[in-house]
Amino acid sequence: AQIFVDASGTDDSLGVVRFNGNGDASEDDAYADGNVVFPMLDMDSQLVRDLANWALDETYPSGDQFDPEGYTSIGDGLYHGAKEIGAKAGEGEKWIVLLSDGHQNEDSDYEALKPYLDGEDIHVDTVALGSGCDDGLLQQIAVNHGGKFRKIESDEDPAAKRRGSTGDSSAMLFALGRTFLDINDDIRRLE
């Protein structure tokens, strides 16, 4: 997420939502497994960028907020992202960039949220991160909402090793950074 903050333009607005389910289907709030980590703000100053990166930093006092553990609650993440966009978006197209393994295994799933995203006219780009992803679901989400699907393999994936990956995370981070720049360019071309 920090790479996307750095790749954003000075006329962009950006917010970050985290979604990580706990497997508790009895929660009162159907979308309790998603939360806004950084509220949607204009990225028009270095101070805002620094604050965004601080909020996303692994050394943040609450720990690594994006450690991939628990259940995947895509519906919760999309709901909170769409709600944040609806409350704060100005002119221009509305976009969500969804990073996930695509294995939604929580009750608040994508299908339940699809009409809400359609009603708010929100586009969704998806990024499958690592091996063993449900590429089909992430591709379908992107197609349904006028976005693109992208895949970033883990440096430990067999396909990455065939291309000469050394197994460290630098190649994956470089690929993620390049992907965010491409997404940003694609969105700008469509506006």
Average per-residue pLDDT, rounded, comes to 78
Oligomer: single chain
**Share of helical residues:** 40-55%
> How far from one another are the termini?
22 Å
Number of helices: 7
Largest sheet: 3 strands, parallel
Low-confidence stretches: none
Gyration radius (Cα, Å) is 16 Å
**Secondary-structure element string:** HEEHHEHEHEHH
Class from helix and strand fractions: alpha/beta
Outline, from the CA principal axes? globular
Q: How many beta-strand runs?
A: 5
β-strand amount:
15-25%
* Spatial order of strands in the largest sheet: 3-4-5
Which properties best describe this structure?
5 strands; 191 residues; two-stranded antiparallel sheet; 7 helices; three-stranded parallel β-sheet; single chain; alpha/beta; 41% helix
List the helices and strands and how they pair.
Layout: H1 2-7, E1 13-19, E2 34-42, H2 46-56, H3 74-88, E3 94-100, H4 110-119, E4 122-129, H5 135-144, E5 149-152, H6 158-162, H7 170-190
Parallel strand pairs: 3-4, 4-5
Antiparallel strand pairs: 1-2
Helix pairs in contact: 3-4
Short characterization:
The protein is of the alpha/beta class and 191 residues long.
Structure overview:
With 191 residues, the chain is an alpha/beta fold. It contains 7 helices and 5 strands. It has helices spanning 2-7, 46-56, 74-88, 110-119, 135-144, 158-162, 170-190; strands spanning 13-19, 34-42, 94-100, 122-129, 149-152. A 3-stranded parallel sheet has the order 3-4-5, with helices on both faces. Strands 1-2 form a two-stranded antiparallel ribbon. Helix 3 (74-88) runs parallel beside helix 4.
